[in-house]
Write a structure and sequence with these properties.
Layout: H1 2-16, H2 27-36, H3 42-54, H4 60-65, H5 68-75, H6 81-97, H7 100-105, H8 109-117, H9 124-134, H10 144-152, H11 161-171, H12 176-192
Bound molecules: iron/sulfur cluster.
């Protein structure tokens, strides 16, 4: 399995090159984006982030200090703004109470993940995105695109979140840079070829 996964990685990297994820200026912005991106496209997240930046509140302190109703209007483009405003507030408060990015980085990934999953609004994919892309922890992020790839290439009998995550984490080095790039490449390929109706012809993973 290790060779298979590395073959997939090499073929994707060869085709697309480095994806430079996560598309954000600060680590706080990564966390905010990870929550806003739930159930919506990145294009919508970008509009919401831009609104927050224009207001000077694209930070944990900014989110905590802004009135919730006002926050909802700024993040409206990302959808589900009532819930997401609450989730952003919960998460920003948690970070500020626990030493923010640098303070939380000192804790191990397993402990952090358990704490994140207790915050209302943070599920496994969001928790792992924050761990990997904001806190530089070697945790593999599993999303719908990853599940699709695993299913279509029959790489695992079990296709639940934890089984797929273990497949990557137990067969590859626990390496932050590798996990960062691998996930970004899977997303890129899912947008280019492995769409709802797969376009296997010309896909870098054709025949893998
Ligand atoms: S488009 Fe086809 S070959 Fe490419 S990843 Fe999806 S299933 Fe595999």
């Amino acid at each position: 399995m290790r060779d298979k996964l590395l073959d997939i990685y090499d073929k994707l990297l060869e085709r697309y090159s480095n994806q430079h994820w996560w598309p954000a200026v600060t680590k706080e912005e990564v966390v905010i984006g990870a929550i806003l991106t739930q159930n919506t496209s990145w294009a919508n997240v970008e509009k919401a982030i831009e609104n927050l930046k224009q207001q000077g509140i694209c930070s944990f302190a900014g989110i905590c200090n802004i009135d919730t109703e006002q926050l909802k209007t700024f993040i409206k483009p990302a959808g589900f703004f009532n819930q997401k405003a609450e989730y952003l507030k919960n998460t920003a408060e948690f970070f500020l109470e626990n030493g923010s990015i640098n303070g939380l980085k000192k804790q191990d990934a397993k402990t952090l993940r358990e704490k994140f999953l207790k915050i209302k609004g943070i599920g496994k994919e969001t928790a792992d995105s924050i761990l990997l892309y904001a806190l530089d922890k070697p945790v593999f992020v599993v999303d719908a695109y990853t599940k699709r790839l695993i299913k279509r290439h029959n790489l695992s009998k079990n296709t639940d979140y934890d089984s797929i995550q273990r497949l990557f984490e137990e067969n590859l080095e626990k390496d932050t840079a590798l996990f960062n790039e691998f996930h970004a490449l899977i997303v890129r390929n899912a947008k280019e070829f492995c769409t709802k109706k797969p376009q296997c012809r010309g896909c870098p993973l054709e025949g893998v």
